[in-house]
Specification:
The chain is of the alpha/beta class and 547 residues long. A hairpin with a 2-residue loop joins strand 7 and strand 8. It has 11 helices and 17 strands. The N terminus and C terminus are likely disordered.
């Protein structure tokens, strides 16, 4: 398989295809010097800061990209995108090669990451069997009976902050500060779900793109050209303010979701085009935030996660990203839709330069935080995530997941519309139903398609159903499927609650009286003509997008 390629003297590759995982050195050529320097830099950071108390609970930093594919990082082999700060995180910690999102689009995947539970359990898996997201005037949101990692960590005395894209309900009752976060600065949903200079449209249900501080609209429409810089500044300030406390910071970037807005500093700087510019700007923000940890003297005591909500938005062509070696992308249950870049860094605790092949998932972040913070997991609900911290200290630790359940949406069995479209158990993945990024048309497979992902990560060579290998693997998968489905409890479908323009966020419902030439809910009219990189080339969508 791909994991057998030898690439570095100093980087370790870890395999979990069996309980007896093997750690082997890789050979390094070409870019090896840069990789060695990154490892040495990580060791220097560890040595130059105060030693971490092994009994102390760490801080937590979650860096969450939007629509970034597995192949969109230079550390994962992209030939023209440069992400040196994210690369350094990887070289200084663990790069996971089998990291899964909980879902193929953003709202459900974010719900899972925050709660440690598959989105089907919270009613956030889409209004129908093909999935979906919360819209800018949705009635529903992340249910109050769900427990976020912010709410759980507060019980252990953590300060809790969030910066960036929320997308789990824009009504005040659903916003971050009503879900355990002490403070919030960011967009309530995707950057193309509200009109701005970068994405101009008129919609009764979608107001100009609002920027929030806690629950207050502080800018509408948002000036996207300065947004990422403001994200990084707010996050850095938060770290400085909370350096003497235990804290968790959830930094959810709006990059690299379309439209690929950027500041003047990064306009036309990447040979990958505007998408590369956006990736570079996000990478720079990561560097600013990591420097803030260093300046505050808390880098050694901060566990940092980097990943993405779902795969690349291929229907956007060059404005979307790349799944690298994996098939398909966002909105699909193929590997390209749910296999994500995954990096974990904790200088002084996690040895640098490791590559891990253990299967992990975004919803493992919740139980991992709870274990390290000494907070018991909730006993009144199913937690789908698994504590991944044993992998941090012992590279031979096998994956804690027997199976990964990959949903397309919310099932409607009365119409014979299953929501569970694929399952991975060990190296085998079965597809019961598939679609592609161009169309949501479902293709049912009877017998199911079966792939051995460690031999065939690209899902090209289906195993013949007549083989004993197929029959044995499918028996395991079907038994797991029955057990999993028996654990489900029907809950209100939050996305099926619909939309109503009265739920949209508006800085001033009478803004037309003051600014008659601009859209309703305009309080910052100058932002309609804000600077844009290559204004003549920007796609001006005629309607807000679904994802």
């Amino acid at each position: 398989g791909r994991g057998d390629c030898r690439q570095s003297n100093s980087v370790l590759v870890e395999s979990s295809s069996s309980p007896h995982s093997v750690v082997e050195p890789l050979t390094m050529e070409g870019s090896g010097l840069l990789q060695k320097l990154a490892v040495l830099a990580a060791l220097c950071i560890s040595a130059c800061q105060a030693a971490r108390d092994p009994n102390a609970s760490p801080n937590f930093l979650v860096l969450f990209a939007d629509d970034m594919g597995y192949g969109d990082l230079s550390v994962n082999g992209h030939p023209t995108i440069r992400t040196p700060n994210i690369d350094q995180l990887a070289h200084g910690g663990i790069k996971f090669t089998q990291w899964y999102s909980a879902f193929h689009v953003c709202s459900p995947s974010r719900a899972a990451m925050l709660t440690g539970r598959l989105p089907i359990r919270s009613g956030c898996a889409g209004s129908g069997w093909t999935g979906g997201v919360f819209r800018s005037s949705s009635a529903g949101g992340l249910p109050h009976n769900e427990t976020t990692f912010a709410e759980a960590l507060k019980t252990a005395g953590y300060a809790t902050g969030m910066v960036g894209k929320w997308h789990l309900g824009q009504k005040p009752e659903f916003l971050p500060t009503n879900n355990g976060f002490d403070e919030y600065f960011g967009l309530p949903y995707s950057d193309d779900m509200g009109s701005s200079a970068w994405s101009h449209f008129t919609s009764n249900s979608s107001p100009p793109l609002p920027l929030l501080h806690n629950t207050t609209i502080i800018e509408q429409p948002t000036n996207l050209g300065t947004l990422t810089q403001r994200y990084a500044e707010y996050a850095s300030d938060y770290i400085q303010r909370k350096k003497d406390e235990k804290f968790v910071l959830y930094m959810a970037f709006s990059h690299v979701h379309t439209p690929n807005f950027v500041s003047k500093e990064f306009c036309n700087t990447s040979s990958r085009g505007r998408f590369g510019d956006a990736a570079a700007e996000m990478d720079n923000a990561v560097g600013v935030i990591m420097k803030a940890l260093d300046d505050a003297g808390v880098r050694n005591n901060t566990l940092t996660f980097f990943t993405s909500d779902n795969g690349p938005w291929l229907i956007r062509h060059l404005d979307g990203g790349s799944a690298g070696p994996f098939y398909e992308g966002k909105t699909t249950t193929w590997e390209g839709g749910v296999r994500e870049p995954g990096i974990v860094s904790w200088p002084g605790t996690i040895a640098p330069g490791r590559i891990a092949q253990q299967v992990v998932a975004t919803y493992d972040i919740f139980p991992t935080m709870m274990k390290l913070a000494g907070v018991p997991l909730p006993k009144d609900r199913v937690i789908d995530g698994r504590d991944m911290s044993p992998i941090f200290s012992d590279p031979t630790t096998p994956s804690q997941h027997d199976c990964i359940y990959i949903y397309k949406g919310t099932p409607n069995m009365a119409k014979n519309q299953p929501g569970l479209w694929a399952i991975r158990c060990g190296p085998y993945k079965a597809h019961f139903v598939t679609s592609n990024h161009v169309s949501t048309t479902a293709v049912r497979h009877d017998p199911p398609l079966l792939y051995h992902l460690e031999r065939d990560a690209t899902e090209v060579y289906a195993i013949a159903s007549s083989l004993d290998e197929y029959k044995t693997a499918m028996a395991t998968i079907m038994a797991a499927k029955s057990k999993h489905e028996a654990s489900l409890t029907q809950v209100p479908n939050q996305m099926a609650m619909g939309e109503d323009p009265k739920h949209k966020l508006c800085c001033d419902w009478d803004s037309k009286k003051k600014y008659p030439k601009f859209q309703e809910c305009t309080c910052d009219p100058d932002n309609w003509s804000a600077w844009m990189c290559g204004r003549e080339t920007v796609n001006h969508y005629t309607k807000p997008d679904l994802d």
